[in-house]
Amino acid sequence: FSIACQRCYQRIYALPIDGHHEDTMKRRLLLLSAAAALSLANAPAVAQSNWNLAAGYPIGNPHTVTLNQFAKDVEFATNGKIKITVHANGSLFKVPEIARAVESGQAQMGEVLMSVMVNQNPVFGVDSLPFLATGFDDAYKLWQAQKPVADRLLAKRGAKLLYAVAWPPQGIYAKKELRSAADMKGLKWRAYNPATSKIAQAVGAQSLTIQAAELSQALATGAVDSFMSSGATGVDSKVWETLTHFHTVNAWVPKNMVIVNLRDFEKLDKPTQEALLKAAADAERKGWERMRGYTDESLGILQKNKMTIVKPSPQLMGDMKKIGDEMLGDWLKQAGGDGKEIIDVYRKK
């Protein structure tokens, strides 16, 4: 205790117990309250960090579910030292703005669709190369090859990688069945990253970049009538209200990654850092499991709402595979040594 606290206790126990027992006890209780207040005032404070996590998808999306569980796990694991508020559906920053917001310290944490960062470095777009990794197992192997390279690049930009979780495989939404790439010519195509823009260019579709939070409105107004995404995005945007067909081409398995501002991370003491990283590893494992299960569930929801699930024709698959091979070649030229490292490691696994 401080000297002031000690004096309080000395005064308490110096009070005689005499005939005025009730008054004496009241005075003791008052002095005990004062002593307790002084003790709390002089106790070392537990530093708490209130962090904002910017996210781009609706509250019910499996990615956001994983984020909210991660936030709870971090608060528990750090004994309340870190309290994370998840801002869903682009309410704090839009998807293309999140990485920069974290790197600059405007938000302590963020969930980023990895492929939107391809203009910063081509390495971030490897998971959007058509038919390089088309299922969860291959996508996870690709992530293991990509992770150390992505972490190095993020550190140079002032951020630290915590974890990444896949989306379900990407299919094609349209108002009709598409039998070949030629059937895609002239479609009003929603793009969300450079890869989907390149596909539109390759097939002769009209491309318009629209992020997930604005997709429902774009569909409702007719600004777009087709796009490539997962079953999860289709459910989020209630795509059945405007479109009728989903083609399960399983072109690629994109990922969202969760990053933290590097300076904020380095300010944490070692045990808190370790607790945060442990919670991140758990979130990655649970998130991949959740998305595996949600893939079939989301297709079921689409079917329940009268969407036609189309097994793609050999011609459409061949056309898309050709586009993918061309995009991989272009990507390897752009990504240089980092890109070669990722592909070499992936193909050895």
Overview of this protein structure:
There is one protein chain. The protein has 349 residues and is an alpha/beta fold. Helices cover 52% and strands 15% of the residues. The protein is built from eleven helices and eleven strands. The strands form two sheets. The chain has a six-stranded mixed beta sheet with strand order 7-6-8-5-9-11, with helices on both faces. A five-stranded mixed beta sheet has the order 2-1-3-10-4, sandwiched between helices. The longest helix is centred in the last third of the chain and has 35 residues, at 270-304. The protein is globular. It starts with a helix and ends with a helix. Mean pLDDT is 89; it is low at 1-22 and 34-46.
Entry summary:
The protein is an alpha/beta fold and 349 residues long. The protein has eleven helices and eleven strands.
SSE topology:
Blueprint: H1 3-14, H2 21-42, E1 49-54, H3 62-77, E2 82-87, H4 95-103, E3 109-113, H5 136-156, E4 159-166, E5 171-174, E6 188-191, H6 194-203, E7 206-209, H7 212-221, E8 226-229, H8 231-236, E9 245-247, E10 255-261, H9 262-267, H10 270-304, E11 308-310, H11 314-348
Parallel strand pairs: 1-2, 1-3, 6-7, 6-8, 9-11
Antiparallel strand pairs: 3-10, 4-10, 5-8, 5-9
The geometry reads as globular
The N- to C-terminal Cα distance equals: 60 Å
Main sheet attributes: strand count, strand direction, barrel closure: 6 strands, mixed
Radius of gyration: 27 Å
Please give the share of residues in helix: 40-55%
pLDDT average, as an integer? 89
- The quaternary structure here is single chain
Topology, number of strands: 11
Strand order of the largest sheet: 7-6-8-5-9-11
